[in-house]
Design a protein that fits this description.
This protein is an alpha/beta fold. The chain contains 14 helices and 16 strands.
Length: about 400
């Protein structure tokens, strides 16, 4: 009862300041995977209940509605024209601490890349709605804040990542099969870095786990086909090689390559048939690998589809386009040379879902190795694969 009463008090909002000056609400364009909570959290607006209410009010939405990719939404973030003198004179406020709070907030937006320039340069001063229009303590108590978050426990992601927040349900009703290349008796391609042995299956598995976690966090049904009970998501540069991976259902992988490939596609197809009977319309598979070439040969991320799959070709093109856009944005001087090709690979030919096969680079090339040895790069790979896989 105490929690309910506290919540009732907190949702009441009233103006703490009165402004004659004009302002606008800051607008953003929703990207694939964006939800109300993730947008508010990105702009540090998620802790105040009145910000949530104002977002729905500004955009004439119900809490049960999701966001549409490409549509503009107003944030509970007031945009004032900075007068070039001070925050206090801009806002007609004599409160120095309040001005410092707003100054720090704008600097944080610039530091995180959400704002290109700070207010003295672009004359745009952003002020969170709750700074001006909510009760003195706008923060939700921890018990209520947690109650609004849906968190599921997935042991497979490891101790640091097992608690997975469901950000939104944009992918509800869609099924994804994430296959990490090789595993079990077959470590896949091998490389070396600073005396450390690099096994393809370990790095492919880590990226696959990160991708699966992203899919789940947006409401998808996602299956890790290869599984290792000892190795969750690992924030380490060098991942220890082992041979204890199994297939979903705790099936031991055969030492025979052909049988092992059939085991994998059979596991996928069994799940596919079950979901097809449930009238699920969207089922996709992604198989993640790292190639092996001469150590002097660089290879950007590239994609395969089955030679006879037009939809597979489209999906692979879509994913390659995502990487191309990312490279243009973040590494414009470098360029991107990834390609899409048709191949008659077993996992593409024998698996029933719409399938794509991705190679993350050359495990023997020192330059390419940075793409999967650096933890933040593995995270980015998963995020970009997620965006490409779910673009439509």
């Amino acid at each position: 009862m105490r929690t309910i009463l506290t919540y009732a008090l907190l949702i009441v909002s009233f103006p703490l300041f009165s402004f004659d000056k004009n302002f606008q609400f800051h607008e953003i364009t929703a990207k694939n995977g964006d939800g109300v909570f993730s947008l508010l959290r990105a702009y540090q607006l998620d802790k105040a209940q009145c910000n949530h209410e104002q977002f729905y009010k500004l955009n004439q939405l119900q809490p049960s509605q999701g966001l549409l990719r490409g549509r503009k939404y107003k944030l509970p973030l007031l945009k004032f024209r900075y007068n070039g003198k001070s925050i206090r004179s801009t806002l007609d406020s004599n409160d120095l601490q309040f001005a410092i709070k707003i100054k720090n907030y704008n600097e944080q937006l610039v530091a995180t890349g959400l704002k290109a320039s700070n207010y003295p340069d672009d004359l745009e001063l952003l002020v969170p709605y709750n700074f001006l229009n909510c009760a003195d303590d706008p923060s939700l108590p921890s018990d209520i804040a947690n109650a609004r978050r849906i968190v599921h426990d997935f042991e497979i992601f490891g101790p640091s990542y097992r608690n997975t927040e469901i950000i939104d349900n944009n992918l509800r009703g869609q099924v994804f099969y994430v296959v990490a290349g090789h595993g079990g008796p077959d470590p896949g391609s091998l490389g070396r870095s600073n005396g450390n042995r690099l096994c393809e299956d370990e790095y492919a598995y880590d990226v696959a786990l990160r991708l699966t976690r992203l899919l789940v966090s947006h409401g998808a049904t996602a299956y890790m086909i290869n599984r290792d009970k000892d190795d969750g998501i690992r924030d380490e540069q060098y991942l220890e090689c082992d041979y204890d991976e199994v297939l979903i259902g705790d099936i031991k992988m055969s030492t025979n390559q052909i049988r092992r490939l059939r085991q994998r596609s059979n596991a996928v197809n069994k799940l596919y048939d079950r979901h097809k009977k449930q009238k699920v319309k969207s089922q996709k598979l992604i198989s993640i690998h790292i190639d092996s070439r001469h150590k002097n040969q660089k290879a950007d991320v590239f994609f395969y589809h089955h030679t006879k799959s037009i939809k597979g070709n489209h999906l692979a093109d879509q994913m390659m386009d995502t990487f191309d856009q990312k490279y243009k944005k973040y590494q414009s001087t470098r360029g991107y040379s990834g390609k899409v090709q048709g191949r008659d690979l077993h996992i593409l030919r024998e698996s029933k879902p719409l399938s794509v096969f991705v190679e993350l680079g050359n495990i023997k090339n020192p330059f390419d190795q940075k793409r999967f040895l650096i933890v933040d790069n593995r995270k980015l790979l998963a995020e970009w694969l997620f965006e490409g896989l779910t673009a439509n």
